[in-house]
Design brief:
The chain is mainly β. Helices cover 13% and strands 49% of the residues.
Length: 324
């Protein structure tokens, strides 16, 4: 007698589950001159589990040998189930108050905020929002600069649970932004190399049929929430700007509100792995699920004169992983 496989309709439908993942810190980097000092992450906080919850960190009166300082730093991460759409919402926030970098860059308040929502069904690619992100009284050499932000730079969630890096509309919009900076002609060498590499990578993704298949390797592109920077009337000789980048003579370059959008193989926590095993299987037929992540960094500073080093201020990351 022939053996029949179980009919698809008799197989119990697996209940979707989700692992939240969010990280934030307020300052990190490395100084090489006038002192050599690694700047560990200040006020780091991370959430990576199925239960969600809310975690916070606070730090105040930080000074790195008087060269870089801030009055207060707050970070928080949370994960919860949406009451409206029943999806999974992850929120990551990093806030700096009273920031001062070498008396050149200062701000009363800087907030990086990223929130993602993974739908309950077909929920591997999230909707993302940067609502709440802002600069308050950002100054260069004591002179205020005016920024225009585009919080919708990533656009709507691609249809069909398609990753952002496989969405041609998103990629072409980002390419235009990167290309305008890469061809500026006045970027420092290290920054020029960085943008040339970004342009090469996004061209490769676009060439792959309008979007790059991740093939379980880490893939990323970088864009910015900054639409324009107004430096009119600032009497700093040689000060220039293109896109989201400030080039400051005798200081270096500052990239504002950069967003890294990426895909990487998920690395589920042991709790999540146990849950999936108890649920009766692994996701994606044994292949690793891909995690779509968004990392926002409010100030990326490449310094090379009055001081030398690389410093990042205001960092927030949000992503997550849904099964099945």
């Amino acid at each position: 007698m022939a053996t029949m496989t179980e009919a698809p309709e008799t197989i119990a439908k697996q209940t979707p589950s989700h692992e939240y993942h969010a990280e934030a810190h307020v300052l990190s980097g490395e100084l090489k001159r006038p002192i050599e000092q690694k700047i560990e992450q200040h006020a780091p906080v991370a959430l990576k589990d199925r239960r969600g919850g809310h975690l916070t960190r606070f730090i105040e009166d930080v000074s790195i040998e008087g060269l870089i300082s801030f009055k207060r730093g707050h970070t928080r991460v949370s994960g919860s189930k949406s009451l409206k759409h029943h999806g999974w919402v992850t929120l990551s926030t990093s806030t700096l108050e009273g920031l001062n970098v070498f008396e050149v860059i200062s701000a009363d308040r800087v907030v990086a905020q990223v929130s993602t929502e993974h739908p309950y069904e077909k929920g591997h690619v999230p909707h993302v929002t940067f609502l709440g992100t802002k600069f308050e009284n950002l100054q260069v050499g004591g002179f205020p600069i005016k920024l225009t932000l585009n919080l919708g730079v990533c656009g709507k969630k691609p249809e069909g649970d398609k990753p952002y890096l496989e969405d041609s509309k998103f990629l072409r919009g980002i390419r235009e932004q990167i290309a305008s900076i890469a061809k500026a002609g006045f970027l420092p060498k290290t920054v020029q190399k960085q943008y040339d590499e970004r342009l090469t990578e996004i061209d490769r993704l676009i060439d792959q049929n309008g979007g790059g298949k991740a093939n379980h390797d880490r893939v990323k592109v970088t864009c910015s929430l900054v639409e324009s920077i107004d430096i009119k009337g600032i009497p700093i000789p040689g000060l220039e700007t293109v896109g989201n980048v400030l080039v400051i003579p005798d200081f270096g370059s500052v990239s504002l509100a950069e967003v890294e959008v990426g895909i990487e193989p998920s690395k589920p926590s042991s709790e999540f792995q146990r849950h999936e095993l108890n649920a009766g299987g692994s996701s994606n037929n044994g292949k690793p699920e891909l995690s779509n992540y968004f990392t926002l960094k409010m100030l990326n500073m490449e310094m090379g004169c009055v001081g030398t080093g690389n410093v990042s201020a205001g960092s927030a990351t949000s992503n997550g992983n849904t099964h099945p």
